[in-house]
# Entry
Amino acid sequence: MHDTNLLIIDSDPQAGAVVKETCEQYLASVDLVSSEDAAIERLSSQHYGIAIVDITLCDSSGFKLYDYLLRAHQSTRVILRCSKPQVMEAIAATRNGCFAFFQLSSMSEQLPHLVKAAAAIDARRAVNTWRNLMLHRSALIDRLLDQIDHCANAEIPIHITGPAGSGKRLSAELIHLASEGAKGRFAVLDCRGKAPQEIAHELFGYTRGAFPEATTDESGLLKRTEGGSLLLHHIDTLPSTMQLQIVELLEKRLYRPLGALHNETLHTRIITSSDRDLESEMHTGNLIESLYYQLQPMQISVPELAEHAEDIPLLVKQHAKQAAKRLNKPSATFSSGAMQLLTEASWPGNVKQLFDFIDETLEAYRESGSIPAAVVESRLGKRDRAVPTFQEARATFEREYLIQVLLISEGNVTQAARLADRNRTDFYKLLKRNNLDPANFKHRPPAVKRNGKRGPLPRPRLKMA
# Structure
């Protein structure tokens, strides 16, 4: 029996009871609620590895509950219970991130397999202690760690993208720790600002006499990390001559130290990273096309800090504790007001900028006790707010959702209201509140000039046989 927590959210008491009885045969902890409010309260109090959701359930604004789960609880596997008329919606939902769906008529055959599969994924997450090295409480970072786990043992190179300071280097180390080569060495080669010859020496190594300064044999990073992993940090800054050598290394899995007579076989896991978009770099000529395609098959994107701002208090507390120890200070805490300012502030330099700010603040603060909000406010200066208010976030989501259903229905209000599961009157009120005109979404034939006048394309004349 699996230890995964399961939450069943079903508006039909009888159906919910039948599903609960089935799942209790395979899971130790199964909870059942009948409303979206009760579900949200449960989800906020503990982690559920699986949620079985009645596909008809909506929140107070009319948005589907499973959409909320996919956005707010991304580490929870969502299984939908639907009836036959809702199968097409369920199929679309699985394409958008839901784990699976089933109907009551086929529950006895399908549900046990689905629950076991979802529980197995949740169990793998629980035993991976390396996940604790990336401090977080957000679903977004949970999803990033799931991606790392998924690709850790892939044999092809992994490329990590993300803005500066977001945690690409740590992500690469976690890929190493999650892999079968975790006992091997992990090393980093920063490619920025180095000449091709310097990079070649560090990467491939050289033999004695290969060049005037080579007085001894020197193993390169590829040799020293055999059985482990090597991160080529900022690979987009490599000179083009070195880019060609990296392509050859990845294709042939062979390399030759400078001055050596024979090739060496590559036994190191190669991970690469970049701050900049590789496709743009290729189009501007900074990245050769062959290297671009070598790095495409498996990519991981590290989000900016603003996308998981709920992790900031946890990051601040942990880093402040470490910084205080490093600075030989007895304690280092921020007041609740100071913590709120740090959470709401904009950090374009991401986690690195936040940590640098904490270090500088602790070093400058000479008083005892928690650092007050006034100190943090004066050091922050005037910064943009990174976290929108609840009303701002809700309004943005509402408008984007309405635009989506209007595009799907091509401005047909009846069809759009049906997709949103709202009556036409309520739907018109939503459109008015968001200043959206359905006419702007209707499909129209292209207009052309006919005898100086604009109008629809003329109907073609049919030739008579």
